[in-house]
Amino acid sequence: MFRITAQTPSLQMSTVTVRHASPGDESALIRLAALDSARPPHGSALIAESDAHILAALPMGAGRPIADPFVPTAELVALLQLRASQLGDRDAQAFPGLRHRMRALFGHHPVSRHACRAGAGPYAARRPAV
Predict the structure, then answer these.
(1) What is the pLDDT of residues 33-85, one digit of tens each?
(2) Backbone dihedral angles phi then psi of residue 128, each to the nearest 5 degrees
(3) Tens digits of per-residue pLDDT, 77-107?
(4) Cα separations (Å) of 92 from 53, 89, 130?
(5) 8 Å CB contact between 100 and 35
(6) Using the 8-state DSSP alphabet, how is residue 8 labeled?
(7) How far is 69 from 48, CA to CA, in rounded Å?
(8) Distance between CA atoms of 63 and 77, rounded to whole angstroms?
């Protein structure tokens, strides 16, 4: 994680756009990674751009941020990390796992399908007797 202090150089620009990388950004990400002596991100990534130039990128999975070493980008990387954490929180809330959904629907831990076949669990009463 980057630390921003009073001595951190500030980037003077009019607008910054934070967005998901698209397939059309691949060549710009390869160039940015080469400038930063890093590998380009694989899979989804967030990018920060200004004046149609990608200045920093953050892989959404594993991997370190990459940034233009000739431009003060610590604030942009911090902004990308903040946005990634916001997206991660939103995705975790919007798409809970099956176990959480079952618990919400039935009020208990889900029962394995083997237990249901053996005549146990909440589905046993619904099955006709054989």
Answers:
(1) 999 999 999 889 999 999 889 999 999 888 899 999 999 999 999 999 999 98
(2) -70, 145
(3) 999 999 998 888 665 555 555 556 656 666 6
(4) 31, 5, 42
(5) no
(6) S
(7) 14
(8) 13
* DSSP alpha helix (H) spans, 4-46: 26-35
Q: Say if residue 69 is exposed, middle or buried (CB neighbours under 10 Å; 0-12, 13-18, 19+).
A: exposed
Identify whether the C-beta of residue 19 lies closer than 8 Å to the C-beta of residue 58: no
Backbone φ, ψ for residue 48 (5° rounding): -115, 125
The DSSP annotation for 17-54 comes to: EEEE--GGGHHHHHHHHHHTTSPPP-S-EEEEEETTEE
Nearest CA among 74, 76, 80 for reference residue 59: 80
H helical segments located in the chain:
26-35, 74-94, 98-106, 113-117
**With contact defined as beta carbons under 8 Å apart, do 103 and 110 qualify?**
yes
Looking at residue 110, its amino acid is P
